[in-house]
What does this fold into?
Amino acid sequence: MHKLVHKFPDSSSSVSLTLPVCIVLNSANPAQCADPPPVLPCIDNIKLKNITCSSTWLRSLLSTLLTLDHDVYCYLTNCNITSCKSDAVPWADTETDVTLTCFKNTLKLMHIKGSVSRGLWEALHGLNIKSLSLSGEYLGLNVNYEDSMSQSTSSLTQLDTLNIKVNNDSPGMWDALRGLNIKSLSLNVAYGGLNVNYADSMSQSLSSLTQLDTLNIKVNNDSSGLWDALRGLNIKSLSLNVAYGGLNVNYADSMSQSLSSLTQLDTLNIKVNNDIPGLWDALRGLNIKSLSLNVAE
It folds into this structure.
């Protein structure tokens, strides 16, 4: 493991210095790599604390890390990621504590405070990633800046897999997911499952994901809103996991109508509490190829 340490003046010092920081992972000119060798070619750990950097600088760093063939952990503690937009308010919504894990077009973002700043969203803009995971360290993610999240995620043109752990659903979260070209979406909720409080927003968002073929959702239990939101999707695989037990089929008719409308569905995985008539009625006549029923213990 390579460790990069940059010491700043003591806070008690009367002298204040602003120093540029440059991290070089590879030389732009391969001919220069013979002697000396590339700087930090096998870096796997970067720790940045109490610094201010622009979203452009962080994006450039992440772009390089995503090309490496091993995991690289980038820790930002009490850092301020500033926006490069001309109308941005200095120091507004910039502080962040986050762990970023990069590996070959795969980025995992775990935010300690559970809220991604505008500057951090801007740093993710346009990255060449195929898989993105978003979560909080202890809680789920709070979608406080859905406009920034939407602009960032929609700019990830190569993205096909998105995993999100949130505190709960919200109109802002569903708006941020709308229209993405992803193929796989997993929604998990901290300390329980998803309560579908905004069924219309969920339905509009999911139906706009025209390339989606795999959907994994952890819910608290079935609801009419959940089944309405899933109705008519062109997905091929659906997994429903239930927090604190298994699915109680409280809305058998809605479940049956929703599942039968999934004409492309060939794989269905459900965690249930027990076999009940409503469950079997809802499964009747489906054209699926694979069925997994996991019973809660």
